[in-house]
Design a protein that fits this description.
The chain has 372 residues and is of the alpha/beta class. The chain contains 15 helices and ten strands. Helix 1 (9-27) runs antiparallel to helix 2 (43-70), helix 11 crosses helix 12 and helix 12 (294-304) crosses helix 13 (311-325).
Length: 372
Amino acid sequence: MIAKGPFDLSYVLRKGLVILAGAKRRAGIHHRVMSVPSDGSRDALRAPRMTERVVSGVAASLFAMSSAHAQPLDKVTVAGWSQPISEITNLLAEPDKGFFKAKGIDLGYVPGTGGGSAIQNMLTGQADIAFTDPAALYLALDKGEKLVAIYNIYPQNVFNVVAPKAKGIRTAADLKGKRIGVYSLSSGTRQNLQVLLHQVGLTEKDVTIEVTGLLNFAPLIQGQVDATAATDTGLLVAKMKGLPEVDVIEVKDHLNLPSDIFVVTQATYEAKKPLLKRFLAAYRDSAAWMIAKPEEAAKIAVTRAINGRDEALNLEIIKLRNISTVSPTTDAKGLGHFDPELMQKGADTFHKLGLIGKPLDMGAVVKSDLIP
């Protein structure tokens, strides 16, 4: 049972003592010497003594419960790839819903500028867990970082490259010689763009990369870039704000890697398994809530997300993100589970395309033992 409002330890103890005293009175237990019955039997004494033991046990349980409530929460900080935006409302809703507090966790969030920055913020000690993407994970592993992937946040690849119809960019090959916007140089937008380019024999040397920031459709509309690497939610927002007709190249048609995953250091994985299990259980509950009650989440996002003023838009973004949260694998095993073969295929593809310098054994990196 989760206590609501401030927990008053003294009140619980006083209440327990009142219950104990009342039970003693009802059982005939008093501070006096009880006489043995005339027939010499002690049966008449057993019931009150047993009642006293039971009542004492209840009092002990009350005290243990009060002590548990008095325990401080364990701080867990997530390094995000983004600012606190509406698509992560299940995390931002913690002050309202308390999913993590219910598991004994004080949740923190450090914003970032892409999956690479999330991992970097974790490695520098600013956070315990990175909310990142497989591409950033592969690149960090290639540099020798000891990391473990513990939860599949969004199994569906939501990255894309978008261009106005007038530009005639309909395939990855059409990107040659073009200016392409990305969120940041350490973001999943850039890394997934690299996948597209390599699929058709191109590299970043064949295009011009422009860092345009998280809201990168403005430079596209203004003609500062020919195309922009984005996500499904970014495209939705741009269309609702008047983006002209566009062609969309879906990265999932080339490599359907998960969009985002939770990653920790090997040291954290080995030292804090019970805490990480509680964190993942809380996150799963928050994700399940957002899937079941997107309207409530959209309303909360109005005050919790930096881009959440429009409740109707919040709802559409949340619906898209809910779609990316599930897959045939999660349908079979539950939220958060990986498709290990797909994670390995992604690593092999990155190696084959020259994005990383050495082969990776993802079987030693992807772990499912902490998933609820």
